[in-house]
Amino acid sequence: MYSHGSESLIKQAREIQEPELQKFHSRLVKLLQVKELSHETLDSLQRLQLILFANKFTKTLPAELQQKLLSLLSSPAEQLQVLGSAVLRETLPLTGQELNYTQENLSQLNTHAAALLLSQAGSRADLSNLCTQLIRGLESRPSEGPNQSLMFTLPVLNTMFTLSPECLTEDHVTLLSKKLVDWLRYASIVQGGSASSGGFFTGPRSRQPLPIAELDGSVSGDFFTVLCVGQGFTEDQWMNVYSFSMLHHWLLTYHSVSNTAVDADDRSEVEGSVVSMVSATSSSSRLLPPKERLREKALQYCQRLIEQCDRKAHKKADSELQKACLVEAVCVLDCVCVEDPSMVYRAFPCIKALFGRLSSELSFARVLLPIAQFYLNHGEMDTVDCERVWKLVFGQFPAELFNDPFLAYELLRFLRLNLESIQRRAPEFVHFFPNFLKFLAWDSPAVVEDFVDLLPSLVTTGTAVELLHTLLDLPCLSATLVLQLRSTCLPIADQNGRGLLSLEAFRNPTFRGLFLFLLRVKAGSGDTIDRLSTLHELLTEAADWPRVVRCAQTIPVLLHVYFNTIVKIDDEKLLAHLVLVMLERSSLLLRIPSYSKEIHKVFSCHLMRLCKLHPSLVVDQSHELLEFAGATGNVYSKEEVYTHVVWVLGEYLSVSSDSRCSVKLITSCFEALEAVLFEITSSAPPPGTICPTPRVITTLMSALAKLASRSHDLIPRVSLFLSKLRTVARSGSVAWCSDEENLVAIVTRGEELLSLLKAPGVAQSVLTPPPYVTTPRWHRDSNVAMPLQLRALTSLTHSQ
Predict the structure, then answer these.
(1) Read out DSSP for 440-476?
(2) Element (H, E) at 611
């Protein structure tokens, strides 16, 4: 993990002795007493940090050295601040030192000092006390002079609320809400710093500060926001920016505080506020409790931001800032309306107008998602038609922006977090699953966890069959999305272009329908296409594309999720259809190395599970299952699925599983399996294939024995075959089994079955035991002696 040089330094740091360490401490104290710190000082600080980091136990530094390191936190050189904070975070603070530092040096707070304060908080009580001290520090008046620590205090508080919202008290909420109102709504409306360039005419008039401006260059005619610009900014303007950046998180966080009754002091909060010195209007809003007043000002602030975003910015960076502010503003409005539903009627016209303006521009897709969240949360209250929103979010976004990783993350997160609400408000979203799966086809590793959560909600009686086909064809969709993008940027006759044949097919009108079906937006146009084999041939060269291979690797995981959901649907007609789909699609898969084998394993596992839960499926689909089991080629090309189909037929084709099972059906199944077993044990495997595994042969033998035990007329036939098999195997090597140990195992199994069939009644009990034998409950049955014996043994062992 470490280089040889790094390991050597760490070893030296761990092996340093205490006397040497004390000398090093003394020398470092002397170095820190010099005003101009040298490179030797920096090297020594780095070495001290390494010693403390590499040591197993946390150490306590000498008090003098610790005080010197604390003084580095207020150094003008940030490198010293970083080193001082890093060293102190590896040590135990001296008793009372943390508290003294906070009280006495709060005006010198910076990012690195804040990190130290948080790391040294040993309990929730410490965090609460620190929170109290920091919030009190926010109460300083402008007349007391500039306080640079204010700009670091809000980020520190925000971090504290994230780590431990329990440290908040009602007093904290009241005080901080007051300050946020002041900074958000009543920041200065003039530029910070001097705008004068000096000269002969310099005087009091020419040094008058300029008003703040909008992003389009016009003079601002309203209160200051994060989208106002100027040559410089005052402290309260900076606090306005910080306040808006943490506003959404604060609105979500302060609910953790118990909602106690608001007393008279809450309603007279204006007395200790800067608001009283700035504005004498809107007295009614000042009578509101702090939380309600903050929501009121947040609403006004966000409406002003949305209005500012209508202005055309001169710089591209400012345009991106507008988009970011729109996202945050809509999220804050949504949060405010969740807390106070009466505000929906004031906020909704603004949101509706914003959606109307941005819905035609895909570049604002990440802004439109918070708008969709607002519609989802509050659309019922305002009785609005949300269909346009859902068509845009579920239809157009995935279809055209499937290759945008940020949108993919945010849209899938939107679906996961609001799944219950979406199912209630927009149940049609399940029909857009072909669109959602484009995110998975394009970037499978990044979004597979999202689809593990989402897929069960997409499985319904109406979508199950088409969804299964779509999952199996997802590698084809991945290749098609690549071709769709390449077709727009590569010339048609590019001899060096990779995938040229696929591109030609993609552009060919003859095959256009195949690709358009894969690129469909909604389900319902058909479960699959007739010419799947043609599509797979056209995409043969895509089988080794990295994006397609990664996509194929995720399909088995999703199929397990799919079938785990399917078994909860009590619809045997649907399950019977899915059995047919599995048999059909086992031979219709894109030829990707190991892809077919993995899919066959999944099919085998869940085919057996479905038939165990619903044994009647075997009789319902007996014709298709027998047709599959009677094809000798399936032994070599679909060994996994074939083996399990044969096992299912032998296990569940009985009167005990389904009263409709007749002797005629058992006989037809026996004859089909007998023909296959005779064929594969009497000739060499076809060219290009390998010998069948012993599991296939022994499963066929066992299935024949089970069927014969249920129809005794078949016992002579299977006995004769097993006898011949034993004779042929003893005569020497055979073409259908290349391994001697495998041959011995097959013959041994045959002899066991032959012995059982000599006693037909015993054979049926052994090969097809009744349920009370396979799932015993003797330890719970009061009619047998087992419970009494267990209780006796328990009492004996516990008494020792």
Answers:
(1) HHHSHHHHHHHHHHHHHHH--TTTHHHHHHHHHTHHH
(2) helix 595-613
- What is the identity of the amino acid at 296? E
pLDDT > 90? residue 626: yes
Predicted local confidence at residue 531, as pLDDT:
87
Residue 196: the pLDDT is: 42
Asked whether residue 520 carries a pLDDT value surpassing 90, the answer given is yes
| Average per-residue pLDDT for the chain | 83
Question: What residues form DSSP beta bridges with 213?
Answer: 219, 229
pTM: 0.82
H/E/C letters for each residue in 567-605? CCCCCHHHHHHHHHHHHHHCCCCCCCCCHHHHHHHHHHH
Domain boundary assignment for the chain: 1-120, 426-492+500-613
Q: CB burial class (10 A; 0-12, 13-18, 19+) of residue 62? A: middle
Read off the pLDDT of each residue in 756-773 and give the average, rounded to a whole number.
80
Query: In sequence order, what are the residues at sequence separation of 6 or more whose Cβ sits closer than 8 angstroms to the Cβ of residue 614?
Result: 572, 575
Q: Which of 555, 585, 566 is nearest to 452 (CA)?
A: 555
Q: For 270-280, give one letter per residue: b (16+ CB within 10 A) or e.
A: beebbbeeeee
Arithmetic mean of pLDDT, 502-516? 90
Residue located via tokens 């087992």: 786
Quick one: pLDDT at residue 779? 56
Q: Which residues contact 493 (CB under 8 A, 6 or more apart)?
A: none
